[in-house]
TrEMBL record:
The keyword Hydrolase applies. InterPro entries: AB_hydrolase_fold, Fungal_lipase-type, Sec_MonoDiacylglyc_Lipase. This is Probable feruloyl esterase A. The lineage of its organism: Eukaryota, Viridiplantae, Streptophyta, Embryophyta, Tracheophyta. One of its GO terms (biological process) is lipid metabolic process. The gene is LOC108829451.
């Protein structure tokens, strides 16, 4: 019995070693200046990605929800954006322990994910990305970030946070599922259009968003990016990658980190994949056939608590922080102190957005 136990432990050790070789999760950058995967930061950001699914905006705004604990304790929300017209939700805030502005985007609602996955099987590239030759992207993902109330509210909150906490603060963008796709466009937007230099993107269960030309541009402009994929999660396999047309098909950008569950889900092993975005030894080595793997990363739930579509809960005490436009889209905004001790203006004043 004792010998079998030692064989089991040695097998576990060998498995973990094979998935962690060549990485040092305690370092943020390699010797040549390239970003390195950091497990502790990942465990923090997955909690931020989970919290954005909360429908009680009062608890989310005050960071008292049951998902607002653990590594994210003490986080200050600056702004919550709820776009009822397109069923989108995001928030912006400051994590003082990370010296970073956190931007989190909500993914697809759990009740509609079956239809959403079905649509992605047939989705074709359909939008030329501005000022990037040959780069094409998914129209729906692009529109969700660029052509809704989300983008101006997020960028405005980032600027207010920088005025209050200093221009050198880091920016970390995260999201799960479709929220990961929106996080991609947000990170690129911050670099290309806003001139930000300290931008890091980490997504969970993100679908492909563009072709290989877009992936190349993106990896060059936002190199500090990690896509976390979980075991047989179906969504990172969508829209499908076609080997016969590598330049025309959807193509992931690097760097993928593939998380596998083993030994009855008691152990998770993380493999940092190559710099192609389509490493055949990572998630592409298995069939993407699991929705349950998509909805849970590192034991953290990444979906809404209820099946209600695009609904929120908010106490009347929060009315002074919130404004709606004529379509019912909502922004909750907190006034921040400026660097000189005065109060900065919020994005919203009396009246509609």
């Amino acid at each position: 019995m004792g010998q079998r136990r030692w064989v089991f432990l040695l097998a576990v050790f060998a498995f973990l070693l094979s998935f962690s070789s060549g990485t040092d999760v305690l370092k943020l950058k390699s010797d040549d200046g390239q970003p390195l995967y950091n497990h502790t930061l990942t465990m923090t950001l997955v909690e931020y990605a989970s919290a954005v699914y909360m429908s009680d905006l009062s608890e989310l705004f005050n960071w008292t929800c049951k998902r607002c604990n653990g590594f994210t304790k003490g986080f200050e929300v600056i702004e919550i954006i709820f776009d009822v017209e397109h069923c989108l939700q995001a928030y912006v805030g400051v994590a003082k322990d990370l010296n970073a502005i956190i931007i989190a985007f909500r993914g697809t609602q759990q009740h509609s994910i079956q239809n959403w996955v079905s649509d992605l099987f047939w989705k074709q590239l359909d939008l030329n990305y501005p000022d990037m030759a040959d780069a094409m992207v998914h129209h729906g993902f692009y529109t969700a970030y660029h052509n809704t109330t989300v983008r101006p509210a997020v960028l405005g909150a980032v600027q207010r946070a920088k005025k209050s906490y200093g221009p050198n603060i880091n920016i970390m963008v995260t999201g799960h599922s479709m929220g990961g796709a929106m996080a991609t466009f947000c990170g690129l937007d911050l670099v290309v259009n806003e001139g930000e230099e300290k931008v890091q993107v980490m997504t969970f269960g993100q679908p492909r968003v563009g072709n290989s030309a877009f992936a190349s541009y993106y990896s060059l402009l936002v190199p500090n990016t990690f896509r976390i994929t979980h075991d047989h999660d179906i969504v990172p396999h969508l829209p499908p990658y076609c080997n016969q047309f590598p330049q025309k098909t959807y193509h992931h950008f690097p760097t993928e980190v593939w998380v596998r569950d083993n030994f009855s889900n008691l152990i998770s092993a993380e493999k940092v994949c190559d710099n192609t975005g389509e490493d055949p030894t990572c998630s592409r080595s298995v069939k993407g056939n699991s929705i349950s793997d998509h909805l849970r990363y590192f034991g953290v739930e990444l979906h809404c608590e209820t099946w209600r579509q695009c609904s929120i809960v908010m106490s009347h005490e929060m009315d002074r922080f919130s404004k709606k436009d004529s379509k019912g889209n909502l922004i909750m905004s907190r006034t921040l102190p400026s660097t000189n001790g005065n109060k900065t203006d919020t994005l919203i004043e009396n009246g509609d957005l």
